[in-house]
Specification:
This protein is an alpha+beta fold. It is built from 20 helices and eleven strands. The chain has three domains: about 10-85, Phosphorylase Kinase, domain 1; about 90-255, Transferase(Phosphotransferase) domain 1 (Transferase(Phosphotransferase), domain 1, Orthogonal Bundle); about 320-559, no CATH class.
């Protein structure tokens, strides 16, 4: 058995520089490619009688994703297999935690989303790939912040592996079924490991099962609920997919940013209040004078924008009481509630009060009165559809949004002409009828391909003018969702006859439209807008890479 050493020459092309790490199934060396003088990582896997050394080699060659290392070359000697891959410059999350201590909730959310997206790709393949050893030591953070999931030595294709064929992962992060001889490995096994890692990054210690109601040190309630869901002992009680987990993390991130912004605003208001007190009693007297006015509908709407949260909602209640069949009060409340691109449960409850209250002596709700005018009602319903689908912090936003889109589409059929909200609502309502099944298998294991329907609906939606839409962040989230579905649906799209060039053009069209939205709203200096725009650029790059890899694979197969 040949020992490796600094200076060892592999295949006459790669000179070993130094060891980078040692694992149970092999070691990793830093190597210099003599012709290009580039540095690569070389994983050496010792051969065994079972031929398991080719397992990781065959699996990694098929994977292409920004959060996974690229395979450059392979080589083989009598007692070893060599995997030449991208050298990921950076430090592992384990090293970062040991040097700087536990991560902040914001940092943990970022880790969860990035690795969750990588799992969306792995689990979304025709035969899902399970990593089965997710831990801080196996995640490298590059200088620019991108995370890369490494070491696929324990990975398996999802086929219900049990017994000897199972991977035990790493103690402190492995799921219960990895230790159960009768347990079945599934996508939920990876989700457990991701949850265990997020717990470790927050708490600085490994998770020990001791009741699912345990508090997680230094963790906001919403993030704690997400982690506890991942860590449930029974796989069936965890998230159903990595995509569902990513959506929950995205909502928690928006909530976290919203709370941070409120804290900063609160400090500014305290300083302003101090200035008002110092100025004397003139402001209070002016407020009393304003309060004696008899408000009309338009004055109530103007006043709602100039007072505190409780007083503002009281203005909307009075306005709706005065004219329940007019759309303006409902739409302005929604604009104000969703100004931070986050529709909270509290804001939802207030909207329900505006819609579902029955005035004294009446028999109809305000919503039923509004619905007498399909044009007014349809526009409100269409806005609610978008807000629920993309900005709602509660569960089931996509389903609730689809319901409102259906109401809007029905109202649109009774409206003269084809207003923009009616066209959009009809397309989203149709999309909602199959969106939850995109890329998933039915109970018989058959993979339903609804991507063609989605591709056509998306094309029609992109013809709509969103540039003047009053919810720019919501529109960017729609574009981001489209890029994600294209990135992870390239194979399904290809099966429907969609060419790679057509996919590339669609991606570039979406990126251009997102740029227009950002430019038009640049003066607002919205942090949420910038966050979504950066995410769109990342998803666009991912989609273009996935399309390129698909075309490269097809060309290689033909030759």
């Amino acid at each position: 058995m040949t020992e490796l050493y600094a200076g060892y020459l592999l295949n006459g092309k790669y000179r070993m520089v130094k060891p980078l790490g040692q694992g149970g199934e092999g070691s990793v060396w830093l190597a210099l490619h003599l012709q290009t003088e580039q540095l690569w990582a070389v994983k050496i896997i010792w051969k065994t009688r079972q031929g398991r050394e080719r397992h990781e080699l065959d699996m990694m060659k098929q994977l292409h994703h920004p959060s996974l290392p690229r395979i450059i070359d392979t080589a083989e000697e009598e007692d070893k297999v060599f995997l030449v891959m991208e050298y990921v410059h950076g430090r592992s999350l384990e090293m970062i935690l040991r040097e700087k201590g536990p991560f902040s909730p914001e940092q943990v959310l970022d880790v969860g989303v990035q690795i969750g997206n990588a799992l969306c790709y792995l689990h979304g393949r025709k035969i899902p790939v399970l990593h089965l050893d997710i831990k801080p030591a196996n995640i490298i953070r590059k200088k620019e912040g991108t995370l890369v999931l490494v070491d696929f030595g324990a990975a398996r294709k999802a086929a219900g592996g049990t017994g000897k064929e199972k991977s035990r992962g790493t103690a402190g992060f492995a799921a219960p079924e990895q230790y159960d001889p009768d347990g079945v490995l599934s996508e939920q096994t990876d989700l457990y490991e991701l949850g265990a890692m997020l717990y470790y990054l927050l708490a600085g210690v490994c998770y020990v099962p001791d009741g699912e109601k345990d508090r997680i040190p230094g963790c906001p309630d919403r993030l704690a609920d997400i982690i506890r869901t991942c860590l449930r002992q029974e796989p069936g009680r965890r998230y159903s997919s990595a995509r569902q987990l990513c959506r929950a993390l995205g909502k928690a991130g928006r909530r976290q940013r919203r709370r941070k912004k409120k804290r900063e605003t609160g400090i500014a208001l305290l300083l302003a209040a101090a200035a008002v007190l110092a100025a004397g009693k003139g402001v209070a007297e002016e407020f009393l004078r304003q309060g004696k006015k008899v408000w009309n509908y338009q004055e109530l709407l103007r006043e709602a924008l100039c007072v505190g949260e409780a007083e503002s909602f009281a203005c909307y209640q009075k306005a709706v009481f005065m004219k329940p069949g007019k759309k303006e009060a409902y739409l302005q409340y929604l604009r104000q509630a969703d100004a931070d691109a986050s529709f909270t449960l509290e804001e939802e409850e207030k909207m329900r009060l505006l819609l579902h209250t029955i005035p004294l002596g009446g028999s109809e709700t305000y919503e039923e009165i509004l619905a007498r005018s399909p044009e007014q009602y349809g526009e409100v319903a269409a806005v609610l559809g978008m807000i629920y689908w993309y900005d709602y912090e509660g569960k089931g936003g996509e389903d609730i949004g689809t319901g409102w889109f259906m109401k809007a589409a029905a109202a649109g059929e009774e409206t003269e002409g084809s207003p923009a909200w009616s066209v959009r609502a009809s397309l989203f309502a149709h999309m909602g009828s199959y969106a939850a099944r995109l890329g998933k298998e039915d109970e018989n294991g058959e993979r339903e391909n609804s991507m063609r329907a989605y591709w056509e609906d998306l094309g029609e939606l992109l013809k709509q003018d969103f540039a003047g839409y009053e919810y720019p962040v919501t529109v960017l989230r729609f574009y981001g969702e489209a890029l994600e579905r294209i990135a992870f649906g390239t194979a399904d799209l290809r099966k429907t006859g969609t060419a790679g060039k057509e996919m590339e053009e669609r991606v570039m069209e979406i990126l251009a439209k997102a740029g227009e939205i950002r430019e038009k709203n640049r003066e607002t200096q919205s942090e949420a807008l910038e966050v979504e725009y950066r995410e769109i650029l990342n998803r666009g790059n991912t989609a273009l890479e996935m399309i390129a890899h698909m075309e490269e694979y097809e060309q290689n197969r033909e030759t």
